[in-house]
From TrEMBL:
This is CRISPR-associated protein Cas7/Csd2, subtype I-C/DVULG. One of its GO terms (biological process) is maintenance of CRISPR repeat elements. Signal peptide: none annotated. It holds the Pfam family Cas_Cas7. Transmembrane segments: none annotated.
Length: 291
């Protein structure tokens, strides 16, 4: 069943003593806005966690396969579409990288892969399956307050090679570093377009699975480096039409986060904050607000 309404949403999640999204161009330091000091988590990072959760829950079976995943060879997935459509890739049509079957191949990819019909994909490399503009889009997440990255030296009581052991005289230690932030509460904005959902086949069932993923995606993404990450609040603005009734930025402005007390000490827990909608505190994880 296709979507009959537009949705905009805000997700709050936090991290304790962890690195929510390291920057490989900066030695894996937590991503931070250099001007304001606020922490940043990219949309790509969050989409990865949603994909992993859906793949785990649905056991990577159609129509919930995952297109962009670890060690995936994307052009091989494109080939699957044409094979399923009965097109011989060695034929003249196949050699033209899809010929006039691109639209059909794109529909096949949307039907079988959850992340293609959700987030969209560029599938024109190799065998051409076209491009899909996804109905679900996310912004970068930004922390409510500035965060401070801490650097920790760590020691492994082992080395990788005999040469390293000889150089250390048998001490066999490997030094390393780990970066964390003590605490950060992050806010990310999301948008769901009903007209684009019609084009990709993103359904009500997919929407409910997305809400489920946003709530539980961190539960199956644990690692020592990421500390304790948790989804804390999900506020969904439900319009009563496909095109929507109000601009998203006006809806998002109705939500604010304030300190729970007058203390000026650095926040170290979600309980240090209150999430407010139109001046009223939100205490449930998921709140649906008619627009």
């Amino acid at each position: 069943m296709s979507l009959e309404k537009r949705y905009d949403f805000v997700l709050f999640f936090d991290v304790k003593d962890g690195n929510p999204n390291g920057d490989p161009d900066a030695g894996n330091l937590p991503r931070i806005d250099a001007e304001s000091g606020h922490g940043i988590v990219t949309d790509v990072c969050l989409k990865r966690k949603i994909r992993n959760y859906v793949g785990l829950v649905k056991n990577e079976q159609p129509p919930y396969e995952i297109y962009v995943k670890e060690k995936a060879i994307l052009n091989k997935q494109h080939e699957r579409a044409y094979i399923a459509l009965g097109i011989d890739l060695s034929s003249d049509e196949g050699k033209r990288k899809g010929g006039d079957k691109v639209d059909i191949a794109r529909d096949w990819m949307c039907k079988n892969f959850f992340d293609v019909r959700t987030f969209g994909a560029v599938m024109s490399t190799g065998i051409n399956c076209g491009q899909v503009r996804g109905p679900v889009q996310l912004t970068f997440a930004r922390s409510i307050e500035p965060v401070v990255a801490s650097e920790h030296s760590i020691t492994r009581m082992a080395v990788a090679t005999e040469e390293e052991a000889k150089k250390q005289g048998g001490d066999n230690r490997t030094m390393g570093r780990k970066y964390t932030i003590p605490y950060g509460l992050y806010r990310v904005h999301g948008f769901i377009s009903a007209p684009l959902a019609d084009q990709t086949g993103f359904s009500e069932e997919d929407l409910n699975l997305l809400w489920d993923a946003l709530e539980h995606m961190f539960e199956h993404d644990r690692s020592a480096a990421r500390g304790l990450m948790s989804s804390q609040r999900l506020i969904i603005f439900e319009h009563n039409s496909k095109l929507g009734n109000r601009p998203a930025h006006e809806l998002f402005a109705r939500i604010e986060v304030v300190r729970a007390s007058d203390s000026t000490a650095p926040a170290r827990d979600f309980s240090d904050y209150k999430t407010m909608l139109d001046g009223n505190e939100i205490k449930a994880f998921k709140t649906v607000v008619p627009v």
